[in-house]
């Protein structure tokens, strides 16, 4: 790699997780239920009816997990706080035991020189607020979220430097309100755009509070970014890719960074009568909340063509595992092809004939991460942290208790090489948090779709002892960190 720039000296080599996916202890020490505690109990919603009641029991085993992080040499650990642990009712009384749990975790991380990266919201609004006023569909949620965020800012301002406001707002609004795949289990695109706007305001308000309470910290959203490609160089298709990029990505990112919705998509939504309701003071608030950095969650992008053009390629439908559950808005398509959707006349998604996919239908595209970072640097010009990237795969625990996940090593390595190229290009990248540190609950896919560096010995039916076993990729990443990526 003679011509490549080295990774920066303080590069944050990290790993990531989310509360509901790892903690368990769903009602421990005063925690209230979140919308996920309720949703996963609805029959037929998740693979084999799995839920996060126990998950990988990180709530009780965080010390063991942090010890494994320390042993690996991890520089940063991204986790999320469960709002309903701090405020069981979403608002009102603070549950000190919940705050104490995160304080202990943060102290443990810091004692091992691991930089905590704290996510305020990874999809788990308290059920109490869902019941009280429909959660994110009410503007009341803006103040309640701010109140929650301020409690954390106050308590951890001297211990946590990097904060993520919302995780993948694009994903949880689409899956929750449009595709009826996540809580609150709604399929109404108008409601999606309304809720999404309210979340934008909540994000902005919390960032304003952050400026006041944590002047030396850094905050930004983590966006699920997939670069849009044109199927080919037919100008109509290139235009469709522009539309796709705007509809799938800029729709959120422009608001985060510039406080404004992009015009083409807004007009399209307006024509369909599904544009969000914007009040007079909204723009002022949105524009006063520029983030310090962008968190980028990258798994794959999307390829599109113009709707009007007869596509000469076959749609290359993948043979998917029978238990496949679409968990990604990029893979969702309106069921009724005749229906007017926001995408109508903007673009049609197609498979990319150049890319292979995982067993769950996600394209594997390492160059896409470089394209992603380049596009984001050019358009938004903020420092970035990759806050998620990883491979969901079946892993085999062998009789000698080892896991040879060479495919994961290959996947991660290919992406990390592209990061180095992006840095060499001039992209300002401060860290990389692989998804995930331990195996965890894959929301709808149970425990079989594994992402971790550390295997957790449990499956859908049996929690077993929840033993932690480092995989081959764990030792690989340890070396990457030790050598600061100089020997990929
Ligand atoms: C991201 C989420 O969308 O992708 C994670 O932020 C999630 O929480 C990850 O686990 C992988 O998705 P899945 O559906 O394969 O678990």
TrEMBL record:
Domain of life: Bacteria
Protein name: Glycoside hydrolase family 1 protein
Molecular-function GO terms, alphabetical: hydrolase activity
Family annotation (Gene3D superfamilies): Glycosidases
Classification of source organism: Bacteria, Bacillati, Bacillota, Bacilli, Bacillales
InterPro entries per UniProt: GH, GH_1_N_CS, Glyco_hydro_1
Keywords for this protein: Hydrolase
Family stated for the protein in its record: Belongs to the glycosyl hydrolase 1 family.
Pfam family, any one: Glyco_hydro_1
């Amino acid at each position: 790699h003679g011509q490549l720039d080295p990774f920066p000296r303080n590069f944050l080599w990290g790993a990531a997780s989310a509360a509901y996916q790892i903690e368990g202890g769903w009602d421990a020490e005063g925690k209230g239920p979140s919308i996920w505690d309720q949703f996963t109990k609805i029959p037929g919603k998740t693979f084999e009816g799995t839920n996060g009641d126990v998950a990988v029991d990180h709530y009780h085993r965080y010390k063991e997990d942090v010890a494994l992080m320390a042993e690996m040499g991890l520089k940063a650990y991204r986790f999320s706080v469960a709002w309903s642990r701090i405020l069981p009712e979403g608002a009102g009384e603070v549950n000190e035991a919940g705050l104490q749990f995160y304080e202990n975790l943060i102290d443990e991380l810091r004692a091992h020189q691991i930089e905590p990266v704290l996510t305020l919201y990874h999809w788990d609004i308290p059920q109490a607020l869902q019941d009280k006023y429909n959660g994110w569909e009410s503007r009341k949620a803006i103040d309640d979220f701010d109140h929650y965020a301020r409690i954390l800012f106050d308590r951890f301002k001297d211990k946590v430097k990097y904060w993520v406001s919302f995780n993948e707002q694009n994903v949880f609004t689409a899956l929750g309100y449009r595709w009826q795949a996540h809580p609150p289990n709604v399929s109404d695109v108008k409601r999606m755009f309304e809720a999404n706007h309210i979340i934008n305001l909540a994000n902005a308000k919390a960032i304003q509070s952050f400026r006041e309470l944590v002047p030396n910290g850094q905050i930004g959203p983590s966006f699920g970014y997939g670069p849009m490609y044109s199927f080919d160089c037919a100008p109509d298709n290139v235009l469709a890719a522009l539309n796709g990029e705007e509809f799938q990505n800029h729709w959120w990112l422009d608001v985060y960074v510039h406080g404004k919705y992009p015009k083409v998509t807004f007009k399209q939504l307006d024509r369909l009568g599904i544009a969000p309701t914007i009040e007079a003071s909204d723009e002022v608030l949105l524009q006063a909340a520029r983030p310090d950095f962008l968190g980028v969650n990258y798994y794959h992008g999307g390829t599109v063509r113009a709707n009007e053009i007869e596509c000469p390629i076959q749609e290359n439908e993948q043979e998917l595992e029978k238990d496949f559950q679409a968990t990604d808005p990029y893979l969702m398509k309106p069921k009724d092809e005749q229906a007017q959707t926001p995408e109508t006349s903007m673009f049609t998604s197609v498979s990319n004939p150049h890319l292979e996919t995982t067993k769950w239908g996600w394209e594997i595209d390492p160059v896409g991460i470089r394209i992603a970072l380049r596009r984001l640097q050019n358009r938004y010009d903020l420092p970035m942290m990759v806050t998620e990237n990883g491979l969901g795969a079946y892993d085999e625990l062998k009789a000698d208790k080892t896991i040879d996940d060479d495919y994961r090593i290959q996947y991660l390595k290919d992406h990390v090489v592209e990061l180095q190229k992006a840095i060499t290009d001039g992209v300002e990248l401060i860290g990389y948090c692989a998804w995930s540190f331990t195996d965890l609950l894959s929301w709808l896919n149970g425990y079989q779709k594994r992402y971790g560096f550390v295997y957790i010995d449990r499956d859908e039916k049996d929690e077993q002892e929840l033993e932690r076993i480092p995989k081959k990729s764990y030792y690989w990443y340890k070396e990457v960190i030790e050598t600061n990526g100089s020997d990929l």
